[in-house]
Amino acid sequence: MGRGRWADTPIRVRLGLALIVALAPVLIIGAIQSTLAARRDTRVHQTELASAAERSAATARARLAAAEILLQTITPESVGYQCASRLAEIKNRIPGYDNLIRFDASGRVACAAAGAPADPARGARPWFLALAGGRPMTVTSQGGVAYADQPALLASVRAEDASGRFEGVLTAVIDLASLRPQTVDRSLPELSEVAITDRFGHLLSTTRADAFATDIGARLAGRGRAGPTLWFEPDRARRERVFSSAPLLNQEVYVVLSAPFRGVVSWAVFNPFSAIVLPALAFLAPLLAVSFVAERGVVRWIVYLRRIAAIYARGRFSVRPTRAVEAPPEIRQLAESMDSMARTIAQRDADLRRTVAQKDDLLRETHHRVKNNLQVISSLLNMQERALADPLARVAMFETRQRVGAMALIYRALYQGPDLKQVDLRDFLDELIALTVAGERAAPIRTEIDADHIDIDADRLAPLALFTVEAISNARKHCLDVAGGVLSVGFHVADEMAELTIADSGVPGAVRIKAKDGVGRTLMSAFARQLRGEVRYIANKGGGLTTRLTFPTSDAENG
Is the whole model's pTM more than 0.70, yes or no? Predict the structure, then answer.
């Protein structure tokens, strides 16, 4: 995280990250311990499942061994006309046997405890031939025909006469369900299911068929089948399970156990409180506690002080952070510092306002006195003008008096206006033109003013006013005082350029634009240079002259 992004991170997030870093080792150690415990539990679970399969197969094999002993015991008695009744009595007394059958040496049924199926080829069956060839006992699930309604095993022993000659077979039909362990057996893992299969993986007997995979035969064929085996795969319902098998009858019949796969995730499911809830609570409780404390004890007070600071930024220093008395000491001290700062700023602001007001009063008084002094000078010039007999001298004195009057008007507009630094040019031009065209004259003069309302500062107002006075004086001298007419004054601002135009209706036929420069034009050029502008003189079509001054506004000049 860069410095900029970290600087923008809220305090609650910073505290949370710090707590996460502090608790991370505890969480990691707990996760490692939980994983190791899960693996250990899984290994124990798998070992128990393999042992349970072997125990189940051993129990079933013991049942078969008991059946062998039983058959060998009753073999001498399974002859005579009471053979069927004696076999039926034994079958009824000992559970787990569907039938007891005595075959003669050719494979025909001699007697049976219950009905026996006919099988002309019985004497040629592999299991029968093995007994006839001298094997004392055979156990098979492939009897050739169905000897019971349910899948069953045929446990058969060889019957001999006194000389040892083969004289028949005694067969016990054992229901496979009776050999299958019950799921309530405490030796079996929890939620286990049991099945007995042949070597091809066909389910001969099962507690629940969908708890077993469809390719059990392939699994049995790919492993050593002399002892218990263990593997993992989904069952027919696509649930992960662990399987264990053990041979029941040579390599023909197997006991298969199926149990839920208890990996790390399933171990956590079986042990939710110790594996998930406790570590999560140990991690989340401090995180929530710190988040709550940060929110209630720090963040909400910072938000409150930020609102107070926003009020101070708008100039309202009278507001006090009174609610901060409930905040922690550090926040309370910060609020007191802000309050003290606000009072100091308010006091300084009041002092500055008083100082500025005093300076404004002094400046207005200064402008007033300058205006009065200029009016005195104007009055003296007026007296001097009346005392002169030379007409040219009187005209020069009159023009000088008008210039002084324009300067006095500037100072009056400044001290009478709301702002000591600038005045509205439209109102100023009204008074200036009225002052300039006033006086005795032979012909009437009509004035037209078209000016924008724009504030102009005092530094630009002086040369602009003097330029206007000179332009109007020239218009009066060469035209208006002789023939009368219209004096048009315009002032407009566009594209950061200001334009002042002063035009007179003129005397028809008179050519003034080519006149030699006099004192007036020299002064106007000087005033234009002070404004960083340019002056042009344009002859009107109907006579008269237009004086045009263009200069940049203060914004354009500063840019």
Answer: no
